[in-house]
Design goal:
The complex is a heterodimer of chains A (about 140) and B (about 200). Chain A has about 140 residues and is an all-alpha fold. Chain A has six helices and no strands. The chains are: A mainly alpha (about 140), B mainly alpha (about 200). The interface between A and B is large, with 40 and 60 residues.
Chain lengths: ~140, ~200
């Protein structure tokens, strides 16, 4: 490794050789051990900036945030377990609502249709024999 | 790769809704995710939102996690990065709120000299990080603070390792220049080896 390459890596990764690309760490150590003064100076400068970076404290989780995150794990909206089952149950509900709606619709249609007229226009749920009976009654009433 | 993924076993237990595993996952990942988001966004409140949203996605995907995908920690970093990108894009042109980094420090009681100095150094570094271009800050946060291997950091940023090294070098030079020009820490300036400006 050349001192230039060493400087390039120190510029990018800082002074801690453990953070350097694994394939170049050994060469870097060897160069340092060789007593080359320029690389020691390079490393000193990188270490200075590392110390500055270390003065920055990251935000730490407060108890409120921890509680909120934990609570979300067990709510149906976020828990994978409950979500899966909730979606399954929801789909059953949607099918149920659909079936109930269809049945109600058929009932409304059947009740609102006029009972007079030709058998062809009546819903097939009526037996044609019953239709003839209804038509016969209508005819008798008209005669009276 | 997944044989060495240290999170897989815990993830499976989280997928089975084991309360102890859920707690362990939070203690293992929340500080790391919050640190990442807070350093990228420079806003403590937004960082909390991002951390919470990231965990919602974690809980959602835990049971369905398949081996053969990326390392779990890498995936989690990707989630946080994407959420941070969204927020950074939505406030394009607005400066980072570096003052928020100090939000946790109580200011009611007078602080001892040493604590004041620590606080000033932290504020100076927060301001220096906030002043960096987004991509340079991201590279430094992933490589230095999150201690990700260079290949992983580059993959997360969707750039080559060479491009990552270039961003890191420029970022570190900019930080050095910012600190050297700052009025906040004269003692550090005196100790500075006085490197060239970017």
């Amino acid at each position: 490794m050349t001192p230039e390459r060493f400087a390039h890596l120190a510029d990018a990764y800082g002074a801690d050789l453990r953070h350097w690309p694994a394939a170049e760490q050994e060469d870097a150590r060897r160069l340092l051990a060789s007593g080359e003064t320029s690389v020691h100076e390079t490393l000193r400068q990188a270490a200075w900036l590392d110390r500055q970076l270390d003065t920055h404290r990251a935000a730490t989780p407060d108890p409120l945030l921890v509680r909120a995150v934990l609570a979300a794990a067990f709510t149906p909206a976020s828990s994978s377990f409950w979500r899966r089952h909730w979606e399954w149950l929801s789909s059953l509900g949607i099918v149920g609502v659909g079936l109930a709606g269809a049945a109600a619709g058929m009932l409304v249609v059947s009740l609102s249709l006029p009972l007079t007229g030709t058998p062809e226009v009546l819903p097939s749920i009526f037996d044609h024999g019953d239709v003839e009976l209804f038509q016969g009654l209508d005819a008798e009433e008209n005669d009276q | 790769m997944n044989e060495t993924d240290p999170d897989l076993e815990l993830l499976a237990r989280v997928g089975n809704n084991e309360p102890e595993a859920v707690k362990e996952m939070v203690s293992r990942k929340l500080p790391r995710l919050l640190a990442l988001a807070s350093r990228l966004l420079g806003d403590a409140e937004e960082a909390r939102d991002v951390a919470q949203e990231s965990f919602l996605r974690l809980w959602k995907h835990a049971a369905g996690w398949r081996t053969g995908q990326a390392r779990f920690d890498t995936w989690l970093h990707r989630v946080v990065l994407n959420l941070c990108y969204d927020r950074l894009r939505s406030r394009k042109g607005m400066p980072l709120l570096e003052d928020d980094f100090l939000a946790e420090v109580p200011d009611s009681a007078p602080l001892p000299e040493e604590q004041l100095q620590t606080q000033a150094q932290h504020a100076q570094m927060a301001a220096a990080l906030a002043a960096l271009p987004d991509r340079q800050r991201e590279a430094i946060v992933l490589q230095y603070y999150q201690e990700l291997p260079n290949t992983e950091a580059a993959a997360l940023m969707q750039i080559s390792v060479e491009a990552l090294e270039s961003l890191l070098s420029r970022g570190r030079r900019n930080l050095r220049a910012y600190i050297a020009e700052s009025d906040l820490a004269p003692q550090q300036r005196k100790a500075s080896p006085g490197r060239g400006k970017p």
